């Protein structure tokens, strides 16, 4: 059980660190600092890899203890010595919810930024829709005059 507790403590620490990174990402998105955002994404990926490795270790430790497919609450209900693990589980649930809310906010900010970029691009580049309202016949000669290579020469 000590091994499981140690793993849960490390998971809580890594999730708290991941939450800090996700909150930093929000500031970088607002400031439109792409370089810092990219560095933050790399840090986030390394944290996610470490969290996944710890989760694998936790599952293996649970299998060793004979509690393979059961949750910590179920195990603590059956074996009182495991009740010490419940605060770690609650901390993880709270931190993961905070990370989810922060990621949802980041997703909304990025979506709005992309919509703004598309709107600005639409203003800069004339769309072909303007031509669709013109009832004049298209002139094929204009395409020939735009050619760089003169085949008759």
From TrEMBL:
UniProt keyword Acyltransferase present: no
- Which Gene Ontology terms describe the biological processes this protein takes part in? bacterial-type flagellum organization
What does the UniProt keyword field contain?
Answer: Bacterial flagellum biogenesis, Cell projection, Cilium, Flagellum
| Keyword Lyase assigned | no
- InterPro entries with a match to the protein in the record: FlgN-like (IPR007809), FlgN-like_sf (IPR036679)
> Short name of one Pfam family for this protein?
FlgN
Protein name, per record: Flagellar protein FlgN
The organism's taxonomy opens as: Bacteria, Bacillati, Bacillota, Bacilli, Bacillales
